[in-house]
């Protein structure tokens, strides 16, 4: 009896120290993102953060008009040795556009002294216009655009880019910029 009490105290203390870490990235995705993940579209590693682009369903009466899956992005921190946990922020976005959508999610972290540790933006969306051949991003105010990752999942196309307040443009195969 005494051994089981000591074991329970030690186990509880370990849980408090480590927080809610999961042994695998997939378990953190399944259990630590506050929305039910329907499908993981893409993951991208940035230092010790894994950016997860996923779809979920819009729940609630106020979203009853949304029938299709919505896009979300999560930031999962960790590794297989120390465990994985959602490092926020969390959210999903949705609006209709016949060409392509643009969603931004900043990720900013400070230490206890208020010093900036990480600061980047994720820009992502769905590509609906079949004439769009690539998505490019550039630092806000700059004209130096670079191609970003395009992901094909089933019959849908998405993109995911990392930058600092990036501007986004879509380009056709003949080099024409397609407005949103």
Automatic annotation (TrEMBL):
| Superkingdom to which the source organism belongs | Bacteria
Q: Which PROSITE patterns match?
A: PROKAR_LIPOPROTEIN
| Protein name per the record | Lipoprotein
Q: Which organism is it from?
A: Metabacillus sediminilitoris
